[in-house]
User: What shape does this take?
Amino acid sequence: MILIRWICFSLALIFTAWLIPGIEINNFMSAMLACIVIALINTFIKPFIQLITLPINILTIGLFSLIINALLLMLAGWITPGVEIESFLSALFGSIVFSLLSLGISKI
Assistant: This one.
C-alpha cells in the first residue's frame, strides 16, 4: 500500500513538473527520491517553520502557508539530485498543483 502511494505521489510530482514551466525532473527515480525528501521536510521541518511564522500566518489568514510550501518545495528541489526549480513563482504554482494532487491521492 505504501509503495503504491509513493508511486502515485511520484507521478503527481512528474505531472506537476510537466504542467508548470520552471520545474524540471530528470527521471522517475529522481521523482521518487524527491517524494521522500518532501515527506521528510514536511515531517521534521515544516511544523517548526509553521510554529515560528504563526503570527504572520494569522495576520494573512493562512495565505503565508503558500509561501512556506513554495520555499520548502524549493528546498526539496535543492536537496534532490535530478530536480531543478528555477524560480519562486514556479515553486509557488508547483506547490499549489502538487498539494491539490496530493490531496486527491490521499482521499483515494
